[in-house]
Amino acid sequence: MNSINKFWNDFCQKHQLSPAALESADAYGANSHDADVLSDLINRGIKTATTSIYTSQEDLPTVGAYSIVLNGKNEPVCVIRTKTVEIMPFKKVSPEHAYLEGEGDRSYETWRDIHEKFFTWECREELGKEFTENTEVVCETFIKVE
Question: What Pfam families is this protein classified in (predicted)?
Fold first, then answer.
């Protein structure tokens, strides 16, 4: 049994959950360094939100679902549970949501700069489209469960 399965099975036993309650096991960010930094922020309860490019209805997180947060070595760090999911144009993301992302100085300006650069790269290199102010994004909030 790999470390992610063991981590999840132990969590399910402790919280009396079905193993089917797991929605995903993911690392955040574009590389292992980002994954280490962001998983640490989530584990410490500082990062309680994330934003991603909206690609399809099937990829949306489910409110109430559990996910395992992985570090840069794809090792489990903690479990989160999705609280809210909203789709909106990038230009409509609020300063409050940016603050909940917990990165940098937590200002809207810093959040916007980091995400605009990342989404421009992601759209061009991975999705084959152009990023604009009107590109739809998924804003998710979550709580660290364990």
Answer: ASCH
